[in-house]
Design a protein that fits this description.
Layout (H helix, E strand, L loop, with lengths): L2 E4 L9 E7 L6 E2 L4 E6 L4 E5 L4 E4 L8 E3 L3 E6 L16 H6 L1 H17 L7 H10 L17 H11 L28 H16 L2 E9 L1 H18 L5 H15 L6 E3 L2 E3 L6 E7 L2 E7 L7 H16 L13 E5 L18 E5 L3 E7 L2 E15 L5 H16 L5
Helix pairs in contact: 3-4, 6-8, 7-8, 7-9
């Protein structure tokens, strides 16, 4: 039986995806779980797995096509089996498709939603239960089962995607804008830039931000890095950075402050079972928030290795959906750009983001005398719907205490 390959929904409110490449050729055998195609969203280029075994056939979308979420772009068929005839026709390409995306997405989603609303066996009981628990609107979920049936796994993947939003432009340096056609004329805005602008505005205007700032003596942090570098280099083949140490410190503090690790979802506070720390990374024409899952239970060496791997694959446009979904808290470090301090915009539905400035020698009071110490500035942005000022202050204090102490290797 033929299995349709559809344009996946990798993020909240995603309507279309751009096909970057097919990783398999038409007529080639594909196994379930193998990487099948690359899709560009407003956050990153991600690799998408095949959902079933079969032979890739009936490819309807070519590289560069912008396709509505849920639209069939190819089929996986049994050897010798012909792919079904595409009822909706071949996807349009490039900017023409981009302008028609919203209408096309509606026409594709409407019949699917109707089928789900009427029951008809298209949503498994477990999927319905999980959807209720996570506040997922089933009319927006694309089923991967026979006849488009929505499984529990489909709902969980949608919920994870909904938890990930692009980091705000304030969380990392934006890529240079395209030059204006003429002096004084308008500057062209890419689709990535447009969506980031929309979501930054949405977060800033709907999330009640408040900010707390602490200046921290980084002497112990520097010493911990110097101690860890040779150890981790030998055991994991990667050089430990200050960011790796901060991920470990923040994760341990989050374990003691579950409210800061919670999310605001559909008017309620949702506790998150895992502590998944995201790092804002600047890549060409975009900012991605790549996730280190269960950071509180991950050794420093593994954090460093994961961070380097994510950074390398982000620059090479080889991130996978699991790399950018499920974050519960974000760190944005602009210290390497000699920024002393800044405030970052929260990535909903997370409750907070920590902005980290540069470590620099400053004159401070030491035992009643003037002295020079390496210091860094931390600025915590918090969602007041999830956590109050006292709770956020206690969390930031614990982060500082972790930095002042020797960070574990």
């Amino acid at each position: 039986m033929a299995t349709s390959v559809v344009m996946p929904a990798l993020e909240m409110a995603q309507e279309t995806g751009k096909l970057v490449s097919w990783l398999k050729k038409e007529g080639e055998q594909v196994k379930k779980g193998e990487m099948l195609l690359e899709v560009e969203t407003d956050k990153a280029v991600v690799e998408v797995e095949a959902g079933a075994d079969g032979v890739l056939a009936g490819i309807l979308a070519k590289v560069g096509d912008v396709v509505p979420v849920g639209q069939t772009i190819a089929w996986l068929v049994a050897p010798g089996e012909a792919p079904p005839t595409a009822a909706a026709g071949t996807p349009q390409t490039g900017r023409k498709m981009e302008s028609a995306a919203a209408a096309a997405a509606t026409s594709v989603a409407a019949p699917a939603a109707a089928g789900r609303a009427s029951g008809g066996g298209r949503v498994s009981p477990k999927a319905r239960k999980i959807a209720q628990e996570h506040g997922v609107d089933l009319s927006k979920v694309v089923g991967s089962g026979p006849g488009g049936e929505i499984s529990a796994d489909d709902v969980l993947k949608f919920a994870q995607a909904a938890a990930a939003r692009p980091a705000a432009a304030a969380a990392a340096p934006a890529a240079p804008a395209a030059p204006a056609a003429a002096a004084g004329g308008p500057i062209a805005l890419s689709s990535v830039g447009r969506i980031m602008a929309e979501r930054t505005t949405q977060s800033w205007t709907t999330v009640p931000h408040f900010f707390l700032t602490r200046e921290v003596d980084a002497t112990a942090l520097n010493a911990a890095r110097e101690k860890a570098v040779p150890v981790i280099q030998q055991s994991h083949g990667v050089k430990v950075t200050h960011t790796d140490l901060l991920v470990a410190a923040v994760a341990r503090a989050l374990a003691r402050h579950p409210r800061m690790n919670a999310s605001w979802v559909n008017g309620t506070i949702r506790a998150n079972a895992d502590i998944n720390v995201a790092l804002a990374m600047a890549v060409e024409n975009a900012v991605v928030t790549a996730v280190i899952p269960r950071a509180d239970r991950t050794p420093l060496g593994d954090i460093a290795k994961r961070r380097r791997d994510l950074a390398d694959r982000a620059r090479a446009n080889r991130l996978q959906p699991s790399d950018i979904t499920g974050a519960t808290f974000t760190i944005s470090n602009l210290g390497m750009f000699a920024v002393d301090a800044f405030t970052a915009i929260i990535v909903p539905p997370q409750a907070g983001i920590l902005a980290v400035g540069a470590i620099a020698d400053r004159v401070v009071a030491v035992n009643g005398m003037l002295g020079v110490r390496p210091t860094l500035t931390l600025t915590l942005s918090s969602d007041h719907r999830v956590i109050d000022g006292a709770g956020a202050a206690q969390f930031l204090t614990d982060v500082v205490q972790e930095i002042l102490a020797e960070v574990r290797t």
